[in-house]
Amino acid sequence: MRIDVVTIFPEYLAPLDVSLVGKARAKGLLDVRLHQLRDQAHDVHRTVDDTPYGGGPGMVMKPEPWAAALDAVAPPDAGPPPRLIVPTPSGRPFTQQLAVELAAEPWLVFAPARYEGIDRRVIDEAGTRMRVDEVSIGDYVLAGGEVAVLVIVEAVARLLPGVLGNAESARDDSFAPGAMANLLEGPVYTKPAVWRDREVPSVLLSGNHGAIARWRRDQALRRTAQNRPDLLERLTPEDVDKHDRATLAALGWTERDGRFSSDGPPVAH
Ligand code: 6GU
User: Is the pTM here over 0.85, yes or no?
Assistant: First the structure.
């Protein structure tokens, strides 16, 4: 996969040299190219922003440098265009489903901006030539889109064939489509079996794989009830078995008309 990032802070993307993404690049599985937006601003100050029409606080990124940068990265009428990702808190939510979709693309271009954003005409015009997605990584405001690029690239890169060591590692992810029907993953343990007087749950040492799977499922239900009750509200009756129902009932969750809801305060554990 090829990824181009156009930014006024290419140095902010230095983490792309490290760890999983860095190794994917070294292995040739990922071709990441960073571009300085200011290289496309030709006045003496290399200006990339200006005051907003209509007034208001902050600055807006000018259209000409962005258009020149995007045309240089992906010349119009030069083969299949990339998919353009514009990180913005006003975008659609970034989810594991979107990460899976992006991981199937041969070429992504990222256009991270400062918070007030890029002149709308750049995005509208790019949309006449390529698929454009404005994407938010959560309900909070960052100073710029570069960190969102890091988040999205890491989530996508680990899905590329050959990037993860263990082929199974991505399958059981909390938000992998179909994994545990979107429950959070439960706690994990490693050696030693006793540490500071704390024992690993004995079922994990039992060798009883059915009991272990059941225990993990109960822990997933418990943690999801605690941290993400919205995910339990999306469960359907087909997602749960008899034992799940009992676990959920013990947590104060029961089914009515095909939907689960909490009928009381969460049970402490
Ligand atoms: Cl993609 N950009 C900025 N600036 N803030 C954000 C965001 C993106 N997603 C959540 N907050």
Answer: yes
